[in-house]
Amino acid sequence: MRFAILGISHETNTFSRVPADYHQFEMADLLRGDEIVKQFESALYTTAGYLQAARDFGFEAVPLMWAQTGPIGTITKDAYDRITAEMFQMLRVQGPWDAVLLPNHGAAVSEEFPDMDGEFTRAVREIVGPNVPVGITLDMHANVSKAVVANTDVCVVWRTNPHLDPKPRGYKCAELIYRTVKGEIKPTQWIEMPPMVVNIVRQFTGEEPMKTIVADSIEALKRPGVLDTSTAEGYPYSDVAEMGMSWIAITDNNPALAKETAIWMAERAWKHREALNTPVSSIKDALETAQKRYRGPRRLGDWVEVPMDGTALAAPAAAETADGKAPSTGPIVLMDVGDNIGGGSSADSTFILAAAQKMGVKSLLQSLYDPESVEACVAAGVGAKVTLKVGAKTDNMHGKPVQVTGKVRAIIDGDWEDFGATHGGYRFYDAGVSVRLDTTDGHTLFLNSRRTGNTSRYGMYAAGIIPEHYQIVVAKGVVSPRPAYQPIAGEVILVNTPGVTTADLSYFTYNRRRKPLYPFEPDTKYVPGS
Questions:
Q1: Architecture of the structural domain at 2-277
Q2: What's the burial of 121, exposed, middle or buried (CB within 10 Å: 0-12/13-18/19+)?
Q3: How far is CA 347 from CA 140, 453, 475, 496, 501, in A?
Q4: Widest distance between CA atoms in the chain
Q5: Mind listing the pLDDT tens digit for each residue in 387-397?
Q6: Which 3 state secondary structure label does DSSP give 352?
């Protein structure tokens, strides 16, 4: 029994000015055959779940090719054509196949195909034919289309945000496909797509109302005959018709039950639409709050790593004590929403840094993608004093370069591993040559020559930076940094900064989205089953 594994995983921010060309995929992950096994066999990503299922159920997993970049702009036609030409040729010539497993993201957009995942699954189905089961496992930020569901037998979406369950959800997808091949089940799917967007700042599944919404999908799974249920939060920075939340129910050959179950989940979530779109702190308010609530440093060893099921993230991080201070020691972590690297931002926003300078805030730590400044620090050498203009060099959406003077304390290669619980289940990180710069105004900057998400602390440790000892840590993200930083934080505060991932969706001009769509049109009505 042979199962092919192939896919393109890309979260496309259509407002980003950094195109996802072929070179971007080459620099990130363009893996073939055994390279895929080496990358994921001991990781916690979707593909690891596929490989584990193959060992447990005894089918042969045949990894063909996998392509991925970090979230950036639209995939160029050249990149899509070159990647899929190679992938689909492998799928054609290395068959026949008993099944196909796809580890896509679900929010990919190419120049030619706004619903790239829909087109990708259509092409796979055309190659293998109507009788070969096809399963796909998607990121919770997928803008799932009806085409993706129609082209696959099983569509499974991760349940947690931050994403701590890609491996078990990938395993579930592979298990259902295996049972389909064996003739034990006949999966039937329904996708429900109410006209609703959830703001990125309300997508943490450890807080309400997302906590209850996910609980509802798990409750629906208890219905006899239901094989799986999924809640997709969607990705609001992809300007496509499918942008928004969706619910999928899979039953054993019972289309009426699948439809009824998906609608039940969606209708319950629709009642929370207003709470899913409430605002968060301004930069000034967040910095002032951080200074008031800081209660002292956290010592190394004083935190507990996040369990793989994410339960440690469910406790409210912002509950106040009687004196109005943070509930525990440790840095106040500010989530830089407008520079959400995991959402396709530039990684070099300076809005919070500039405000901290102006306000005289001390003991602040943050990373910045700035190859130019890294090069200058490397040229100066460890121990040198430098004056630089850092950050805000990708575009004009993320502030202006900020002048700093400081000492180059460390230079590292920026290549590290993280064996703990990380967003997306990733283990290997590469921030390129990176520099620790301690400024004369009491800040520490972790300067990177490659754009990388703030989802691991271990690169900072390698540079001699101990995040636990700072008053304020700026994490460039919304939810993805939580597994790394919430275990050491006194409090986590979301900050509504400007940028290509700002929480203020009125900043963007949408040309393809559905109309009406809540909250853009507040009076939007939802007709179940439409």
A1: 3-Layer(aba) Sandwich (3.40)
A2: buried
A3: 22, 8, 10, 15, 11
A4: 70
A5: 999 999 999 99
A6: helix
How much is the average pLDDT of 194-211?
95
Query: What residue ranges in 33-115 does DSSP mark as E strands?
Result: 60-68, 99-102
The C-alpha atoms of residue 97 and residue 5 are separated, in whole angstroms, by: 10
In this prediction the pTM is 0.86
Residues sharing a CB contact under 8 Å with residue 458, sequence separation 6 or more, in sequence order: 416, 417, 418, 429
Give φ, ψ of 77 to 5 degrees. -60, -40
Distance, in Å, from the CA atom of 80 to the CA atom of 85, rounded to the nearest integer, reads 8
What pLDDT does residue 304 have?
Answer: 47
Q: Kindly list the domain boundaries of the chain, sorted by start residue.
A: 2-277, 283-502
**Could you report how far apart the first and last alpha carbons of the chain are, in Å?**
39
Say which amino acid occupies 329.
T
| Lowest mean pLDDT across 108-112, 300-304, 330-334 | 300-304
What pLDDT is attached to residue 299? 64
ω into 519 cis (within 30 of 0): yes
* Total length of the chain: 530
Around 287, how many Cα atoms within 13 Å sit in the side-chain half-sphere? 19
Give the span between the Cα atoms of 342 and 460, in whole angstroms: 18
Residue 306: CB atoms within 10 Å: 21
Token pair, residue 302, equals 């004083």
pLDDT in tens, 272-298: 999 999 999 999 999 999 999 998 887
Helix-helix angle 77-93:116-128, to 10 degrees? 20
Q: In the 8-state DSSP scheme, what is residue 313?
A: G
* DSSP-derived 3-state class of residue 484: helix
pLDDT at 488 over 80: yes
Task: Return the residue matching tokens 């592979």.
Answer: 174
Structure tokens at 78: 């050249």
Lookup: tokens for 415: 């290549």
Tokens standing for residue 186: 């006949």
Residues 41 and 52: beta-carbon distance below 8 Å:
no
Model confidence pLDDT, tens digit, residues 107-117: 999 999 999 99
What pLDDT sits at residue 305? 52
Distance (Å, whole) CA 169 – CA 158: 6
